[in-house]
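CATEGORY: protein folding

GOAL: derive structure tokens
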Amino acid sequence: MITSMRFLPILAVFLMTATSALTADGPLRHVVSFKFKAGTPVEEIRKIETSFAALKSKISQVQSLEWGTDVSQEGLAKGFTHMWVLTFSNPADLKTYIDHPDHVAFVTQLKPILDDVFVFDFHHKP
């Protein structure tokens, strides 16, 4: 019992840190990377690029949207060819974006040609 009591302050600090990280202030970045199925026609990929980029003008919660294709010389992209970085004010705005009918329609368009996706959200730290 005494041994477990020693860890309570450590656990409390850990929980406070984790909670503050989840509610951190500042812009929220939503990073998405695509790996398309082998043999996907270039025209289909171009349609996805256009549709994804258009989400910024359709969903007001998107503060910014940047994207590009892999140009790394390191060869570590693991088949992922496209990277998108979207910025939101807060987690609620990101949730609104994810549930937005235009985003849902985009995902429906994307799924048939998508081999894999990587998503990573983080609060921007200057």
About this structure: The longest helix spans residues 2-22. Residues 26-123 form a domain with the Alpha-Beta Plaits fold (CATH 3.30.70.100). Confidence is low (pLDDT under 50) at residues 11-22.
